[in-house]
Amino acid sequence: MFLKTLTIPARALLQCVNRGVISPKHRHVFPVGLGRGPSRLYYETAKPVDPSLAGASSARTVDLRSDTVTKPGAAMRQAMAEAEVGDDVFGEDPTVNELQKMAAEVFGMEAALYVPSGTMANLIAVMVHCRERGDEMIVGDLSHLHIYEQGGSAQLAGVHSTMVTNLPDGTFDLDQLESKIRHGYPDAHYPRSRLVCVENTHNIQGGRVLPLPFLQEVKVLADRYGLAVHMDGARMMNAAIAQKVAPSTILQNTHTVSVCLSKGLGAPVGTMLAGPQDFISRAVRCRKALGGGLRQVGILAAAGKLALGDMINRLEEDHRHARTFAQGGHTNTQMYTCKTHTWTFLFHHIFLTTLSTCVCVCVALLECDPPLYEVDMAAVETNILRFRLRDASLTPTEFCALMAGVGEGEQAAMGQGVRVLMFPHIGGFVRAVWHLGISLEDTQLAIQKLQFVARQHSQQRLRAQ
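User: That's the sequence. What structure does it adopt?
Assistant: Structure tokens below.
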């Protein structure tokens, strides 16, 4: 990209669009920028859109709220229907046993245990590693275990937590980590440090992948002080695909791990908890106490086998689609600044047959400096995307409502109504997550909807001036 000066007033350019000077064919192919509101949300539950809105009942829905919304396909459903089952509490379900053996091999661990959910798996790990009430674990202040799991470690296990500050890439400062470790046990004044928890990929920080050197250093530090390292690896398989390494390469730097089967891997339910054999033996007892001892659960484990066997490599599709959306289809673009309003423009070279000449057509996309829309492409590492809305007149919640509805003139501009479901997110961001239910076509439709909403918002602001 490069900067040039344009002397045509920005308002006049936008009027050209409104009056049809720019071909309708190209009116919805431009990228977007949208505003920032003071959001303290981690995320909100999406509100249903009123189907009475124009075209909403027949609109195409692109659900980017989470990769937990995936549904099992035909092959997975067939495997579940045909699964051989037994009583898993007695250790007699052959499909569960096969899944547990398979997971242990994939993760490079001695043993693995099938658990109903990631939250339960993390709680079990805390209970096994911190065996006495009043023990302490060290976790990131923006970790899923700390933010989203209802403080179960304190509620149910009596385990105290101390925080380290998560950095933008999901890591934390090792000096700060070391400063949080308690010494002098059994001094009556302090809890006993037992466990360090890491999260990979990091959810709140936008699917960031923890660097291998960081994990190695955490493990060395923990070993020095006799602490265990547990990885909340709900999306650890995304990290392995992004780093192009085997899962076992990542997990050699941890003692235990929990890996969700019900996110990008597409199973309807279940998490694998893995670690040393004695850890898993104790984990079985904790799972039973928490109500996670299930019977003929091979019906669900069959889906997990397909998830671990067939669904890992396809995660790269989700990563690629997230990057495509983040880029907004911004190909062959040039940035210009208008002398009159210091606007930023995107230029598309469009051949207008009526003039038999190639001209530059520009549309005002990003309001006056600072821009409305901001995304850090370096942070788009996996299937989670966060982008910032920097216009104070449009909050993330309002933006998500616009994306989830069908706006006036949308069907005429886009050829159909499109509802794109996203979440407002902590720090004034909007969060979108790709998964096996989202195709490249869905992604392109979401880009068009983003651009449509941007144009509508820019036009409203111009009319208000």
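The CA atoms of residues 126 and 137 lie 8 Å apart.
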